[in-house]
Amino acid sequence: MALVLHRPQSSASAADRPLVHQIGPQVGPRSNLDRASIGLTGRVITTERRVLIVAVLASFVAFLDGSIITVALPAISRELGGGLVLAQWVVDGYLLSLGALILVAGSLSDTFGRVRVLRIGLVWFGIASLACAVAPWGSALVLARVIQGMAAALLVPSSLALITSTFSGAAQGRMIGAWTGWTGIAGIMGPVFGGILVDTASWRLIFGLNVIPIAVTLVLLGRLDEPARARPAAPIDAWGAGLAALGLGGPVFALIEQGRLGWASPIVFVPLVVGLLSFAGFLWWEARAPHPMMPLSLFTIRNFGVGNIATVGVYAALGLGFFVFTLYLQQVGGLSATAAGFAGIPATIMLLLFATLFGTLAGRYGPRMFMAVGPVVAGVGFLLLIGAVPPIDLWLRVVPAIVVIGLGLAITVAPLTSAVLGSVRPEQAGIGSAVNNAVARVAGLVAVALAGTIIGGALDVDGFQRVMVVVAGLMFAGGIASWLGIRTPASVAAPEHPE
Hints:
This protein is mainly alpha-helical.
């Protein structure tokens, strides 16, 4: 890749590490090689900074669009109709295509290059965003959201793979922490901007404004060289992609529609059975396919496998928790869309302040302790929200709980990402990132589809409290899995000795 740092060839041991970790304070007079390295360092730092900005912006629009929609759902339902079912489909249509195709996108990123795949994803994301902004009816909006999810699948793994391919060791932990912090901010700041736009203008603007960060990212991408392809293009796993789409789509359709039609309806029962059989077929095929889009062998790597188990608990909790929380504040608590959006700001602040710190600490001491403690802290925060009953006192019942949730997320997300991606080889960074992101999106997808079942009909105080208990349980499960299964990497456990 053109973005990989060049390494001096004069030392065999030095060639095993990126140049950015070789340059530091020197003892004694500086040689000509030292001065050349310093000059090169200035250029490399600029390139690295640009890589980080591109990675953050490309992921930012995908995460922002996944979260900003929640605060606009009541307004969308008032204008287009559809009630809770349309709200679930507007969210899950995006997550469904994202989760089903992100694995293929990860393989494309590894094969054809991060920059090229990012550029295509950004263009299509912008087109789909404009289609959402002008959607005349609910089904058209859901279709545009599905296309958005397909484009987002190209963005997330490629952007994170840029970071993991450029940085290593503690520096990688810091950069993943920065990436996680800003993309996490997108996920929680989305409702703030969405609420303001819904109350002051129209929910349609939340999609139309996507073109601004997309245009900026495309300009920055133009200044990055397309990395040379490291290997011939592998055939696309069409069977795997098709089986994954059916395996996810069928059960999600059944979970959403069963509240309206009932489990006995063939319209619900048949997609459920077909989906479950397709998912089983997907696993069977991936174990035998010559070019699988989800190499099952990755899950034999301990930290990768356990990290993805923890991902299921954490991101299922986040998807379900914030989906219901935002609806509840408006539909039951009577808050405006803006107020409901601002309720998440404390968590945003916690992520902004502490995500990079905990990413750095995880790179230094290992991710296990942080991945175990963080979800428990976030789970306690969701339990605190049980006390938010009408008339809702935001400062007493909501803000403290959201602060605790934000702290738990700051402790968790960067070490979790670092543990999963740090366990795979650099050339597998794209597919590793894609698998982990697919697991996260699918966990949120299924959790949102289950919202109606957990709520039990119309959203009320009792239904909201049941959801918060379930969400806390999912968080606790993620923390327990991490404590029992995650191991500290040897490179962290063994102190480094200077050469």
